[in-house]
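Notebook, bench 3.
Goal today: get a predicted structure for DJ-1/PfpI family protein from Acetivibrio mesophilus so we can plan the truncation constructs. The sequence was checked against the plasmid map this morning, with no discrepancies at the termini. Length recorded as 192 residues. Pasting the sequence as submitted so the record is complete.
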Amino acid sequence: MGKKILILVGDYVEDYEVMVPFQALLMAGYTVHAVCPDKKAGEVVRTSIHDFEGDQTYSEKRGHNFMLNATFDEVDERGYDALVIPGGRAPEYIRLNKKVLEIVKYFAQENKPIAAICHGPQVLVAAGVVKGRECAAYPAVAPDIEAVGGKYISLDMDKAHVDGNLVTAPAWSAHPEWLAKFLKVLGAEIKI
């Protein structure tokens, strides 16, 4: 039986940060379940597109509808081998959900692979799993990471960082390295 990966999303998750990992991990032969609090398989979350256009911060536009393929209330985290937390707006509010935090804590306590990108580490912070850990993220999340005793790792937007089971990156432009490093942590043979 192949490995199962859980992706935690919500409305206005960053479009590339959910679509690309979801499709790439399926392509690599993993079973991937994307779930959202208070939503069921077959329902959709709206995505947002964040772009870097020379302003002081990213711009935001409406993206696509992303269809969920599993039901949040039916998730048993013990049945999954790894966790992915995309960025966008979703992390700022899914981190308020107790079950989301329990899921993240489980993966951290079991030392299972966790990949988070952009604003995704906000969920890690809320779950209390970054203290003493190195974590990359979108730069605006740095104060959150440091406030809870984590070490923010500043990287170019196309780079990723690994700290044990934790694979993090600042933005979707890091997908090639972020996904390659995540697959390596999962035990796949990937040349980077």
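The mean pLDDT is 95. The radius of gyration is 15 Å.
Flagging this for group meeting.
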